[in-house]
Amino acid sequence: MKAKNLFRADPDPAGPESVEERVDVLAESESARVERIVSMGHTSPEGFWYDQDQAEWVVVLAGEALLQLLDPEEEIRLCPGDHLLIPAHRRHRVEWTAPGEPTIWLAVFL
Hints:
This protein is mainly β. It has one domain (22-109): Jelly Rolls, CATH 2.60.120. Helix content is 0%, strand content 44%. It has no helices and 8 strands. The strands form 2 sheets. A 5-stranded antiparallel sheet has the order 1-2-8-3-6, with no helix packed on it. β4 (65-69) and β5 form a beta hairpin. 16% of the residues are buried.
C-alpha cells in the first residue's frame, strides 16, 4: 500500500503532449465513486452537457473553474476549497478551467 497526494498534479502517463484530462478513480462501491480529476485549461466539448444518473459532489482543491448549469441556468465559479452538490440529471458543463496551471478536482458520485 502506498500513500498518494491529492494535491500533486502527477504527470499524465500518456505523456506531456496528452490533451485529455486526467481522471483517477480513488475508490468505488456499488453506490459511490470517488474521482480525482486534473484539468489543464480543459473545457467540455462545444454543445456537450453532462446528464448523470448520480448526484455529484465536487470540490476544487487547486486552480479555478467555471461551471455552467441548466434548469435553472446559472454559472458558478469555483476556487480552491469551493464545493458544490449537483443533483442527478441536472445538466452541467465545464465552461473554463485555469490555463497554464492544474485545476485539481475531487468528485464524489452517489
